[in-house]
Write a structure and sequence with these properties.
The complex is a heterodimer of chains A (about 100) and B (about 475). With about 100 residues, chain A is mainly alpha-helical. Chain A is built from 3 helices and 3 strands, in the order ααβαββ. Chain B has 15 helices and 15 strands. Classes of the chains: A mainly alpha (about 100), B alpha+beta (about 475).
Chain lengths: ~100, ~475
């Protein structure tokens, strides 16, 4: 069977997740992820023709709350947890590129 | 370069903030313009261990909009859209992906053309970032400040099919969608406040050939900007194509002051959001009973309201504006109370703003009757109307207080004759058929009667005198 996942795939996903991996880690995680995908193949080989698709492991839907305002938390407390604050807002490094 | 050889194709993505009391997944207030970072909690800040719970009203508003757009309202699930950008503290945005709440609808425009709606799904808004240093430009900014009040505010994203063929049609689509959002109460849909945001996917191709590569235009803050940006983009793309270059698929930002688009997101950042199902939220599947109650609460839509008003007033020029301002019910009630339809429509489109203040249907009807019978001139009626809007009251009493007595026929005739006598030379020109001097005589009569004369009556008298 052709490799389901390559070190290039893992390097790409790692970059998207902002993870810095060594070459050894890349090889290790590629092997481990290949094992996970192989297990998924095993599951996919089962005959599920008569089984309805489920969107969630819990047999629940329409878990809702009423549209009623509840108190927010204290701003000073929130901002105290931030590494940098300016003018009542979170201060973050400049980021090149645009928000989606 | 000739645009005539090319066909424009546009699809629009419209984000509208829902008019709920609270955010989509937590009880923080959904409120514009509050002190920064005061409407925040562990859920919308993405603190570990917090869990989202879906807002029932957000589902109802989304379904209501879906019904207004003739969509199928269907069972849906939420996904995480993963990206690193400080406008979302969680590093993902909860949205809907392959199973949106609304799918496959249509929007009919006033000119009768129909634009397909691919989907209208629920998602959460992001926080507001302000770029500091470098003149506020993102690429030159030294750092950014973030306010999370908007993070988690419920949105619907309405995605049209690429059915739009002219800049004017794109503008008509945005205008009609805005009217529907406002009329259904789903959103206040204010483009200038950002509660309705329009992105345009624009491409050019030669008729008979496949669609061209598209660019996504963002930062369109008005319907006017939308039209300008599409026109600019048409020329830019055709210029490139005719010089043998290729269009790069990219996001471009509209610069209103410069009147041009500029490339946005950096090239290296390929779009790869790794959508996966949000494990903390279960599917939402409104049952028939719930959907029926949402449908029962659906107000009349703008298209039907325009037709209804035009049928009563006979006018269709001002009808759209009056419906957009929500004044059609007032006009219809005033007509039912015996008011003059034409004059009511003119006042509603020219002299009233949304809300109409203290003005109610009966005095509005009375005012139009006083005007129709000639007891008040158009100018006087406008003054009385302004007072009715600020303080209410009885039009006839207000007119009397202000000394707006009906001008007797004799007094009017005397004023007209005096004006004729004042400038025999101009009068000869008028008699010879030079209607350019009409305004001169009307103005003279207005001056001597202190504005009490009715302009139309003066013109009629002048005509009568010229023929006798």
């Amino acid at each position: 069977m052709a490799a389901r996942i390559t070190t290039d795939d893992v390097a790409h996903v790692a970059r998207l997740a902002r993870l810095e991996l060594t070459d050894e880690e890349l090889v290790l995680y590629t092997e481990q992820l290949a094992g996970i995908l192989a297990h998924a193949d095993d599951v996919a080989s089962l005959d599920t023709a008569g089984v309805p698709a489920t969107a969630h492991p819990l047999p629940l839907q329409n878990v809702l709350r009423d549209d009623v305002v509840r108190p927010s938390i204290d701003r000073d407390e929130v901002l105290a947890a931030a590494p940098a604050v300016e003018d009542r807002r979170f201060r973050v490094p400049a980021i090149l590129g645009e928000a989606p | 370069m000739s645009l005539d050889d090319w066909q424009l194709v546009v699809g629009l993505e419209v984000h509208a903030e829902l008019a709920t009391n609270t955010k989509i997944f937590c009880g923080c207030a959904n409120s514009f313009g509050d002190e920064p970072n005061t409407n925040v909690c562990p859920v919308c800040l993405g603190l570990p261990g917090s869990l989202p719970v879906l807002n029932r009203s957000a589902v109802e508003f989304a379904a209501r909009l879906g019904m207004a757009l003739e969509c199928t309202v269907q069972p849906s699930v939420f996904h995480r859209k993963n990206y690193f950008y400080p406008d979302m503290p969680k590093d993902y945005q909860v949205s809907q992906y392959d199973l949106p709440i609304n799918a496959d609808g249509t929007l009919e425009l006033p000119d009768g053309s129909v634009v397909g709606i691919e989907r209208a799904h629920l998602e959460e808004d992001t926080g507001k970032t302000t770029h500091m240093g470098g003149g506020g430009r993102i690429h030159d900014a030294a750092y950014s400040l973030v306010d999370y009040n908007r993070a988690g505010v419920p949105l619907v994203e309405i995605v049209s099919r690429p059915d739009i063929r002219t800049p004017e049609q794109a503008q008509a689509y945005a205008t009609e969608l805005r009217a529907i959002l406002a009329a259904t109460g789903v959103s206040d849909a204010k483009m200038e406040e950002g509660s309705m945001r329009v992105d345009a996917n624009v491409s050019m191709h030669k008729p008979g050939e496949p669609y061209g590569t598209r660019c996504e235009i963002k930062n369109l803050n008005s319907v006017r900007s939308l039209g300008r940006a599409i026109r600019y983009e048409m020329e830019r793309q055709v210029q490139l194509l005719e010089s043998g270059e290729r269009i790069v698929q990219e996001t471009r930002h509209w610069d209103e002051d410069a009147g041009r688009t500029r490339p946005g997101r950096s090239k290296e950042q390929a779009e790869d959001y790794r959508y996966f199902q949000e494990p903390d939220l279960v599917p939402v599947a409104p049952d028939d009973e719930w959907l029926a109650s949402i449908r029962a609460a659906m107000p009349m839509l703008p298209a039907a309201r325009r037709t209804r008003l035009a049928a009563q007033t006979g006018g269709d020029v001002d009808v759209a504006l009056v419906v957009e301002r929500g004044l059609d019910d007032l006009v219809l009630e005033a007509i039912a109370a015996g008011g003059d339809p034409g004059r009511l429509l003119v006042h509603a489109s020219n002299n009233l703003s949304a809300g109409a203040g203290e003005l109610s249907a009966r005095p509005f009807a009375e005012l139009s009757k006083l005007e129709a019978t000639g007891a008040l001139t158009a100018t006087q009626a406008k003054t009385v109307l302004a007072e009715l809007v600020t303080a209410g009251g009885d039009p006839a009493a207000i007119a009397a207080t202000r000394g707006f007595e009906a001008m007797g026929d004799d007094a009017l005739a005397a004023a007209v004759d005096a004006a004729i006598a004042a400038d025999p030379e101009a009068w000869e020109k008028f008699k010879a058929g030079d209607r350019k001097v009409t305004g001169f005589f009307v103005g003279l009569v207005m001056k001597t009667t202190k504005g009490k004369a009715d302009g139309k009556a003066v013109t009629a008298l002048l005509d009568a005198r010229a023929q006798s």
